[in-house]
Amino acid sequence: MIASDPDLVTGISQYEFGGFDGTASVDQLESAGSAALSACGAVQDVPMDNIDETYRYISALSDAFDVTERGEELIDRIRTQVSDATAASRDADVPVLSLSSVPDAGAGINTNGGSSFANGIITLAGGTNIARDQLQDFASLSAEAVTEANPAVIVVVSGFADSSDEDLKAAIIASPLLAETDAVKNENVVVVPQRILLSPSLLNADAVQIIADAVANAS
């Protein structure tokens, strides 16, 4: 990376800078005369309830390339798409569970925590992440906790499993640990690609729309 002498190195996560073998840290890049820009900031100590990191990232990139006005136009367009997706008012609390794999009866149920970007998408869509109180990107819930929370919407996060989206969704629906949830009983299970749910993307509004439609079905 450093050998190519870039002016700017950008990525969707702070972990891409020195967090993996072969990736340079921010300090290493700066020492080599390169700037670093991450779409996602540090983990916060309150639940994420927006996609402001997307807007900040677009703004920073457009400023870096001296196309600030185009960046502002893009931000306005995404804001409008999100607003349109969530236009319908919902009074009921709609619990949502996100899963990227089939729950294992012998382990905790892995999901997205309250400080994750996914939590912001779910919140904008009018849902309540049942792991909202766990302030971390990834969280673990017991089967009992999931049963008690009774998610009315299950979001299948695609892009991690070797199986197809359809097979992953079917396997999650067939899980005995989820059989008594309203989401499974009412077939209110939707698939959202991880690339538009877990990090800033120009298509974040699409993720909001998919989940908002499922939330509306559960309301």
TrEMBL record:
<comment type="similarity">
    <text>Belongs to the bacterial solute-binding protein 8 family.</text>
</comment>
<dbReference type="Pfam" id="PF01497">
    <property type="entry name" value="Peripla_BP_2"/>
</dbReference>
<protein>
    <submittedName>
        <fullName>ABC transporter (Iron.B12.siderophore.hemin), periplasmic substrate-binding component</fullName>
    </submittedName>
</protein>
<dbReference type="InterPro" id="IPR002491">
    <property type="entry name" value="ABC_transptr_periplasmic_BD"/>
</dbReference>
<dbReference type="InterPro" id="IPR050902">
    <property type="entry name" value="ABC_Transporter_SBP"/>
</dbReference>
<feature type="domain" description="Fe/B12 periplasmic-binding">
    <location>
        <begin position="1"/>
        <end position="219"/>
    </location>
</feature>
